[in-house]
Design a protein that fits this description.
Elements: H1 2-18, H2 30-34, H3 60-67, H4 76-89, E1 100-101, H5 102-108, H6 114-117, H7 120-131, E2 135-140, E3 143-147, H8 198-216
Antiparallel strand pairs: 1-3, 2-3
Helix pairs in contact: 4-7
């Protein structure tokens, strides 16, 4: 009879534990034994903070010094020359293998400080080059840039291959204007209502080529 009573007491305790009861036979949880609150996730468990996890405190003077960035003071024309140099370097997508975004062009052009924090100066230069058909906007979101096919129709000017002085010949690039157009879309062409004519377009191309060859005879090679 004593053995049967012990078995019955054990079954009753097991039933109370399974049912979630808090009878005398319920087994205590390990966290309750340790006196800590149970944590459902290991990431929320409390424990000693490892030394490597503590945030490194930077000295105040050094932190202020590192927050500063030197500001560049390039003019709009100089930024235009640098943009064209960078895009010529990436012609046929042989350098970066994709059209460059505005931020990538700004970084490669050497803009720093205020001129890279705000796109005011870059947008003026890029808008002017876009209106002059020197560069082409490939996509709108995000905005990416390439050299225009009209600008490379008769070849591209040489650029410096030296990584230490990538803008050595940038000052030799000349443009018809250095201010963005005031009216109309920057990428628009005004045809005065005339439809496109392939024969007329070929005649104008031949006239541009003849004028280009005539002007080329008066040039002095500045790269020697």
């Amino acid at each position: 009879h004593a053995a049967a009573a012990a078995v019955a007491a054990g079954c009753g305790g097991a039933a109370a534990f399974v049912a979630g009861g808090r009878g005398a036979a319920a087994v205590a949880r390990p966290t309750e034994v340790l006196g800590r609150q149970a944590s459902p996730l290991a990431l929320r468990a409390s424990g000693p903070l490892v030394r490597e996890w503590t945030k490194l405190k930077t000295p105040k003077m050094l932190k202020k010094y590192m927050e500063r960035m030197p500001h560049t003071e390039f003019t709009v024309e100089e930024i235009m020359q640098r943009i064209v140099t960078v895009l010529i370097k990436n012609v046929d997508l042989k350098w970066r293998h994709h059209p460059l975004t505005s931020l990538e062009v700004m970084k490669e052009a050497g803009l720093r400080g205020r001129q890279i924090k705000s796109k005011l100066w870059f947008n003026k230069a890029a808008s002017t080059l876009l209106g002059l058909r020197v560069i082409h906007k490939v996509t709108g979101q995000p905005i990416t840039w390439e050299i225009s096919e009209e600008y490379r129709e008769f070849g591209l000017p040489p650029i410096s291959k030296d990584p230490r002085t990538p803008f050595k010949f940038a000052h030799l690039l000349k443009f018809a204007r250095n201010r963005p157009f005031r009216y109309g879309p920057l990428h628009g062409l005004y045809k005065k209502g005339k439809p496109f004519n392939a024969a007329k377009a070929e005649e104008r191309r031949e006239a541009r080529k003849a004028e280009f060859e005539k002007v080329k005879e008066t040039w002095v090679n500045p790269y020697k």
